[in-house]
Amino acid sequence: MVFLALSCSAPDAVPPPPPDPPPPIELGSAVASYHLSFPEAQAHRVHVSAAATCPAGGALEWWMPTWTPGSYLVREYARQIEQIAATVDGIAVPITKVRKNRWSVPCDAEGQVAVDYTVYARSMTVRENFVDPELGMLNGAATYLVPDPAPDGPFTVTLEPAPTWPAVATGLAKQPRPDHTYAAADLDELVDSPIVLGTIDRRTFSVAGVPHALATVGQPGPWDHAAAAADVQTLTEEIVAFWGQIPYDHYVYLNVLGEGRGGLEHLDSTLMITSRFHTRRPADYRRWLGLVSHEFFHTWNVKRMRPAGLGPFDYENETYTPSLWIAEGLTSYYDDLLLARAGLIDEAEWLTRMTDNIAGVQRTPGRSLQALSDSSFDAWIKFYRRDENSGNHTVSYYTKGAIVGWLLDAQIRRSSDDRQSLDDAMRQVYARHPDGFTPAQFRAVADELAGADLSGFFAAAVDGTDELDYGNALSWWGLKWGEDPAPAEDDPVPGWLGATTSDDLRVTQVLRDSPAWHAGVAVDDLLLAFDDQHLTASNLDARLEQLGAGIAGTLSVARRGWVRTLPLTLGEAPTRVWRLEIDPGASPIAARRRAGWLKSRRASE
Q1: Nearest 5 degrees, angle CA 581-CA 583-CA 586?
Q2: How far apart are CA 473 and CA 133, in angstroms?
Q3: CA distances from 274 to 125, 126, 219, 289 (A)
Q4: Residue 461's closest CA among 321, 331, 307, 329?
């Protein structure tokens, strides 16, 4: 672990360094080995040969993870295995599926068991696998069968790239052999080390003497590799300065130009997907930098400073925690803040981004039904399985978590007379709880640094569904809400339905407590007419504006082949403006606080 001059405020804030990195793994000592080849890359297939020694007992079970850390949904990766066969000491033996993700192979003790299988790989997401003649993108959980009981390690992975893939990039350590052989010290490292293959533009840089790389793979095009690498280095330096130490001996940003968007954190790497055109438009590019910031911040917050419920990992079953608002929400607070501190966005853009977060939560009816801690706990069944009703009964632990982080930061700063901050709390929790923190332990650190009992704050903002109190943060940093628009004289207030529709006026969402909700409008209804006046996609907005709020009538809809009429009174759309602005009437002290809060830590070293 590399330590920087920057340290935390308390004497016990810096964790002790771990043992020196282990020497290269002796390949013959691997408890399981994997050989990956791609003779059918054009058909999106990965051929895997896994080998291990049969234990005493007469059978060896192999299992595949059902989910991957960082993405809290059981994804059933075993569904992509198409063909599977087994041998013992080179002789074919039966292989029997005993559970949805487990297979059993009969064998004698000390016999060498090999399982050969084919994985279908055509999901261009950071959570699964994608293979074609242009590129390969592999995730451990979606690729490897693991012998049971899961051995401590080490594991080896040997790649036989397709002829059209000249290069490989991964966080796994390359072993001293001429072929593409890599090693993982344990199961977590094996699962947690994605691999990309193809034509790779690799830009390297050093931070505090530790090597880093931006490895970009994908279709050729207008992606600006040099500018991206320079900005990623700046951002890396800023985030390292925030934490004050580096817990890895190398790091690689795996950047796939796949015309999508997404990112997933890993121990010594991150896997991201973006568009090759995103460096052409400044707004898209800055959003990509926000993704980089988010995933790299996770190197500390989640991969090492983690909620206690997230480790040790059970790769076959859900692992619950009420603290994803810390893992993801606070990371979402800092991803934009650290972009601003690094000078990659300005103060105005930061205000716009937080405004978007606030407006998104305040216009989500589910904020009054689901607490932030409950949103975290229910991620497995709700967050990744959103439907047309999700906004009516759930709230995002990413978005609301980011807002609560901002409010908590202001609370700690005010209570401690600006001597401590959420920055300090994050570093303290990281140092004190290397084996995982509980909600009580996180809150105890916040109380300690604030010098005050913050239980009321957490009860309301995290465990309750009360409206968030923004007043403290606004006054502390010299901000205010933008003015609500003044209604035009003599113009009627436009009518509001409270339902969203597709281009053909089919209802896609009905908001809780809206006029459509109370009238009984349902998702998939086709809007036909209001008081016998035909509605079309081109006239709906104008018709609602012309009718005005408070007008009662009948809405005709087509539902499951029948026309129904529903009594409905048009309402008034929520018009509250949730726009953060600098308060010109705030004190100079508040302006200095805001400037200090946005100041680069690199400049203060």
Answers
A1: 155
A2: 52
A3: 10, 11, 11, 11
A4: 329
- Distance, CA of 199 to CA of 187 (rounded, Å): 28
CA distances from 76 to 63, 205, 339 (A): 11, 38, 36
Contact 600, 239 (CB under 8 A): no
Task: Establish whether domains 324-483+581-604 and 499-569 are of one fold.
Answer: no
Q: Residue type for 536, please?
A: T
Please write the tens of the pLDDT for every residue from 314-332.
999 999 999 999 999 999 9
Structure tokens at 374: 């409950």
For the chain, give the longest Cα–Cα distance.
89
Cα angle, residue 209 at apex, residues 206 and 213 outer, rounded to 5°: 30
Which class is domain 324-483+581-604?
mainly alpha
Determine contact, residues 32/60, Cβ cutoff 8 Å.
no
Q: Spell out the CATH class of 27-297.
A: mainly beta
Contact present, 457 and 408 (Cβ < 8 Å): yes
| Residue 303 DSSP class | T
Please state the three-class secondary structure of 212-225 as a single string.
Answer: EEEEEEECCCCCCH
pTM confidence score: 0.93
Alpha helices in 193-330 (DSSP H): 225-243, 282-297, 324
Burial of 552 (0-12, 13-18, 19+ CB in 10 A): exposed
Q: Which residue has the tokens 């303290």?
A: 428
Query: What length does the chain have?
Result: 605
Classify 179 as helix, strand or coil: coil
CA 60 – CA 421 distance, rounded (Å): 52
Degrees (nearest 5) of the Cα angle 593, 595, 601?
A: 105
Per-residue model confidence (pLDDT) at position 12: 40
Query: In CATH, what number does 499-569 get?
Result: 2.30.42.10
Q: Tell me 24's DSSP state.
A: P
| pLDDT at 38 > cutoff 70 | yes
